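Posted in: Protein Modeling Q&A

I'm a second-year student putting together a small comparison for a lab meeting, and my supervisor asked me to include a predicted structure for Secreted protein. I've never done this before, so apologies if this is the wrong subforum. The sequence is pasted below exactly as I got it from our records. If anyone can share the C-alpha cell output, I'd also love a short note on what stands out.
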Amino acid sequence: MDETLRRAALAAKGFMPDDEGDALYAAAAEVPAGGLILEVGTYCGKSTLYLAAAARAAGARVVTVDHHRGSEENQAGWEHHDPTVVDPHTGRMDTLPFLRRNLWDAGVEDVVTVVVGRTEEVGGWWTTPVALLFIDGGHAEEQAQADYAAWARHVAPGGALLIHDVFPDPADGGQAPYHLYLRALAEGFKERSRTGSLRVLERVE
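Accepted answer (user: helix_wrangler)
Welcome! Here is the predicted structure, written out as C-alpha cells:
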C-alpha cells in the first residue's frame, strides 16, 4: 500500500484497527481493473482511504454511501460519540466535512465518488454490478439488515462481500454484523478470510 495513503488512513477519525485496515486494502486490491468498490457507511473516511489506495493500485473506482448524520451508536450519550463532529449550527452530527477534507488532503478525490443519502434508499435504485461491497454502516439490527438487503444483491458473481465488526460472542460487541455474516453464508457467499472482526466473503451462487 502506498505509504502516504496508509499514513492518511491511520490518522483519520474512525473505528478500524490497523490490521483490519490492511486486510481491507488487500481484499480491495484484488478487484479487477475497471471494477467498482462500494462502501456502505463512510463516517469520516478512514476505511475509504484504504479502499481508495487499493482502487488506485488496481485501476478501479470507489463509491461510498452515507447520510453523514452518524449511526445510532455515534449519537450523544453512546459509547462511540465524538462531540467534535457535531455541527454547532444544527446541533447534529455531520461527518461529511471531515470526509471531504480527508479525501482532499490524501489526493484521492479522483478515484472516490461520495453519495450522500441513506444507504438502503440509494441501494433501492442502484443498478451497477459491484465487484467488492464493504458493509460498515449502522449496527442496530434493523439498519444493518436493511443495508444488506439493499446492497448484497448487487455483488457480481465471484465478487467480494466484506463485513466489519463481526463478533460471534456478544461480550465482544453488537450482534447485527454477525447476523449479516450468517445470512450471507446462507445466501450464496462463502468465507475467504478473516482478520479481527473483518470477514471477507465471495459470492459463489
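A couple of things worth pointing out for your meeting: The first strand starts at residue 36 and ends at 40. The first helix runs from residue 3 to 11.
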